[in-house]
Design goal:
Elements lengths: L1 H21 L16 H7 L13 H5 L18 H9 L1 E5 L7 E7 L6 E5 L8 E5 L3 H6 L7 H9 L4 E5 H7 L15 H14 L6 H12 L22
Antiparallel strand pairs: 1-2, 2-3, 4-5
């Protein structure tokens, strides 16, 4: 009798485990569904499309003069070029050179891409140690839908603080215009933030992702499923989706 009772209990427990395992909010891959407001949810909503040819890409012709202050980005119109705006935002103890309220002459960067500290000093042969990276590279934006948005939106994208970050010069050069399937920051602690910023930019400007890129982004965000979608570029002004 004890053997039959024990067998019945085991069977009941097994059935309960099976039933429990089949319930709950799970997607078809057995993973929890992305929560509202997360980068994962925004990634799922992006259109997936093969990258377009890069023909016709021209940095100044299609995205405007580098570091122009002519932008729809929050905080624009302060008469400081975008490069110095981002240096002022991202460097610790940024200092002016005395010649202009805009020009940042020195400071320290906790580089998000490599994890190292970089002493920035403005000057020939030293300024390039810290570069301003387009999180979604302009060449990559061009092949993922920027060809179809207006000039005004492209110039905004090129100067939007959401899409700009001060970073190690060599790391930025290594990245070039590669998407997340081909390049991610060496500093793994920053990868979730980096991918979330890319997703936010692509959502804001109506850009697409290719299949490999989406898979790479999803792998990163799987490690941080609650990573929030950034809402601004460090200005405190809410992100708004740009319409075509």
């Amino acid at each position: 009798m004890k053997s039959r009772t024990l067998g019945a209990v085991c069977t009941a427990v097994l059935l309960a485990v099976v039933v429990t395992g089949c319930s709950g909010s799970k997607d078809d891959k057995g993973e929890g569904k992305a929560g509202s407001g997360t980068a994962r949810a925004a990634l799922d909503a992006l259109a997936v499309k093969q990258a377009a040819p890069k023909a016709g890409y021209d940095r100044e012709g299609k995205f405007g003069r580098a570091w122009s202050d002519k932008t729809d980005a929050p905080g624009s119109g302060n008469r400081c070029d975008t490069r110095n705006d981002i240096l002022a935002r991202d460097l610790k103890n940024p200092r002016n050179d005395g010649s202009s309220a805009c020009v940042i002459a020195s400071g320290t960067l906790d580089d998000p891409y490599t994890g190292k500290k970089i002493k920035f000093q403005r000057g020939t042969g030293t300024s390039s140690a810290v570069q301003i990276d387009h999180v979604v590279a302009l060449g990559q934006a061009w092949v993922s839908g920027a060809q179809k948005i207006g000039q005004r939106q492209r110039e905004a994208l090129a100067n939007d603080p959401l899409n700009l970050i001060a970073a190690d010069g060599p790391a930025n050069g290594q990245k070039s215009d590669q998407d997340a399937s081909k390049w991610l920051p060496r500093n793994t602690a920053f990868q979730c933030t980096y991918v979330a910023r890319q997703v936010a930019v692509k959502k804001k400007y109506g850009l697409t992702v290719n299949a490999g890129e989406k898979d790479a982004m999803a792998r990163v965000l799987k490690t941080c499923p609650n990573e929030k979608l950034p809402v601004d570029g460090g200005t405190g002004v809410a992100l708004k989706e740009t319409r075509k």
